[in-house]
Amino acid sequence: MYNSYRDAEPHEGYYDLLKILDSTKPNRNWFVYHEGTDLLYERAEFPQNKIMQGKGNLFYWQCKPCNTIVRNASKKYRHLIIF
Q1: How do residues 44-63 score in pLDDT, each as one tens digit?
Q2: Within 13 Å and on the Cβ side, how many CA atoms surround 36?
Q3: 20: number of Cβ within 10 Å
Q4: Given the DSSP bridges, would you call strands 32-34 and 51-53 parallel, antiparallel or unpaired?
Q5: Distance (Å, whole) CA 20 – CA 10
């Protein structure tokens, strides 16, 4: 499941929504609240400060020994799933 989230791309609706918000509210304070965990809004180039995530996301990784948060860990970090 993680790998499919890692490889997901936003569909046209994300880009359309961003165009609508930018054209109708260019100087107003808008934001997007969602409960997805896949970073599709970020991939569709929504401004980071306009995105509120209810559940966080799968791509904030934390180094336990040093307590450092790694944002958007590299695509080389994949899970091997064996059925």
Answers
A1: 999 988 888 887 777 666 66
A2: 15
A3: 10
A4: parallel
A5: 16
